[in-house]
Amino acid sequence: MWRDLAPVGRSATSGGYFRQPWTAAESELRAWFAEQCAARGLTVQTDGIGNQVAWWRPDGEPAAPGVLTGSHLDSVLDGGAYDGPLGVVSALAAVDELRERGFTPSRPIGVGTFVEEEGSRFGLACLGSRLVTGATSWETARELRDRDGVFLADAVTDAGLEPDTGLLGLDDVGCFVELHVEQGRDLVDREAAVGVASRIWPHGRFRFDFAGEANHAGTTRMEDRRDPMLTFAATTLAADEGARLTHERATFGRVRVEPNGTNAVPSRVTAWLDARAASEEALQSLVDDVSRRAGDRAGHDGTTVTVTAESVSGSVAFDPELASRLSALGRSPDGGTDGWPVIPTQAGHDAGILSAAGVPTAMLFVRNPTGVSHSPAERAETADCLAGVTALADVLADLAR
């Protein structure tokens, strides 16, 4: 399966992946998922925007709502191979392993994928799961535009989907377990191949619009300029300083400049801040501090700044009893290990959206030897990936008995 996925949406230049939602690469991945499920006798349901789920149902009427696993298939721009697809491939492989064990579930086991988890095209992270849970309405989402000005509703339709046919329902989902490559080095430091998530830091995306005055780069004296690029640069440094002092995260990773000429003082700079903190109060304090310092610098530069929150996700604490139960499955028979370590994550996931919607949710992480993620250098060792498959199979067996 991993060899099948390797070339899809991959850049020949960087080796990274461009698997944005409702594009040819993502459509190919949806078709691949449907084929893999069909080969296992699982019937795939695809909703009106491309979310997919396939159920392995026990004989007779299910005694309880099912156990859903899976992740996402889209990527960030120039992303890595593992973020998302590892969870989908591992879910299918876990079903294979359970069948090889002769296991028959007493409640349904589902494998699913959610669209636009990264928010790389329309700017709203976990969009597919937000729509399914009702955290975001279709009326709001359909008006989102990508960088080329394409409306989300048009992108979905152009991909051959029919949004009016509705979304996946969660009535049949009793719990959700997402496996994901770790986006950090916690498991490396613990010398553990697999971990269980305890919580997700609150995080958000904030648009900073800096406005000034376009002018000639050669004839305009430095003291006569109203340059929004200076305000942006000072704000970037302020965000870095504030996050370092409080041990949080602040990143300006996307910038748009107008008119974007080499020999012109820009008239406008738009930049997006990704901010993350250990608590919602700390996140708000961090963003407020960056915004205040941006405003102070704008006053000095003769520019203006407006801050807009585009996507904010609150803190998520995964079900502690479920996390403890799953952690215990990692205990070694000889008592050499106490179980899989329970660790926090600073990255957002569909699991966090489902948890916030009241679905009992857990996450498994597979060790990332470098900790690098959202990059072509992202990777995981094959032995650790296989350990993740076995761990997920153990979890599904425990939850579906």
TrEMBL record:
Chain sites annotated for binding Zn(2+) 1: H72, D83, H180
Binding site for allantoate: R205, N263, R276
Organism ancestry: Bacteria, Bacillati, Actinomycetota, Actinomycetes, Propionibacteriales
UniProt keywords, alphabetically: Hydrolase, Metal-binding, Zinc
Gene3D superfamilies: 3.30.70.360, Zn peptidases
Cofactor binding notes: Binds 2 Zn(2+) ions per subunit.
Protein's organism: Nocardioides seonyuensis
InterPro entries assigned: Amidase_Cbmase, Bact_exopeptidase_dim_dom, Peptidase_M20
Positions bound to Zn(2+) 2: D83, E118, H374
Protein name per UniProt: Allantoate amidohydrolase
